[in-house]
Design a protein that fits this description.
Length: about 160
C-alpha cells in the first residue's frame, strides 16, 4: 500500500512538472519577445519590419550578382573518398540557380555486405544532402564509414562548385 501511494504521488508530481514546463514554453507562431517594442503607456506593440535595401531610382546594374549560396551552375564530381577499407564513395552534384538540384553517389567497387550497406545508405544520404544543401548531413545507422566518405566526397564536389 505504501509503495503504490508513493508511486501515485511521484506520477502526479512528474506530470505536474511536465505540464508546467509545457505551459512555460512559447508557441512556435508567437512573436519574438525581443521584437516587441513598448509604448510610453507600457503596452507592447509590434516593432516595424527591418527596412530592405531597395535600389535608388535610376540606378542600373549591368552585372548579375552571384547566387546567394555561392555555387555556380553545372555538374561537379567530388574526389572518391575511401570508406575505411570497404569501398570508395564518389559523389557528384548538379547545381542550378545556386541550389543543389541533384545528388548522385557511387559505391565504387564494393562487394558483398559492404555494397549492400553502401547501396542502402545512398538514397538516404542523397535526400539529406538535397535538404541540407551542404555536407553537414546525418549519419545513417549501420553505415558510419560510408557516411563519412560520402560527406568527404560531397564537400569536395561543393568546393569545386563554389564561385
Amino acid at each position: 500500500m505504501r509503495r503504490s501511494a508513493l508511486a501515485l504521488i511521484g506520477t502526479v508530481a512528474g506530470t505536474a512538472l511536465m505540464v508546467g514546463a509545457k505551459v512555460g514554453t512559447h508557441p512556435a507562431n508567437a512573436p519574438d519577445p525581443a521584437a516587441l517594442d513598448t509604448t510610453p503607456s507600457g503596452e507592447p506593440t509590434s516593432a516595424p519590419p527591418p527596412s530592405s535595401a531597395a535600389p535608388k531610382a535610376g540606378a542600373t546594374s549591368t552585372k548579375p550578382s552571384p547566387p546567394a549560396s555561392g555555387l555556380k551552375n553545372g555538374t561537379f564530381a567530388g574526389a572518391g573518398a575511401a570508406a575505411e577499407s570497404y569501398e570508395t564513395v564518389t559523389v557528384s552534384i548538379t547545381v542550378a540557380g545556386g541550389k543543389i538540384t541533384a545528388v548522385n553517389g557511387s559505391c565504387g567497387k564494393a562487394s558483398g555486405q559492404s555494397r549492400t550497406i553502401c547501396q542502402g545508405a545512398l538514397p538516404k544520404l542523397q535526400q539529406e544532402a538535397l535538404t541540407a544543401q551542404n555536407a553537414k548531413i546525418a549519419t545513417v545507422s549501420g553505415a558510419t564509414a560510408t557516411c563519412a566518405a560520402y560527406r568527404t566526397s560531397l564537400q569536395a564536389a561543393l568546393d569545386r562548385a563554389k564561385v
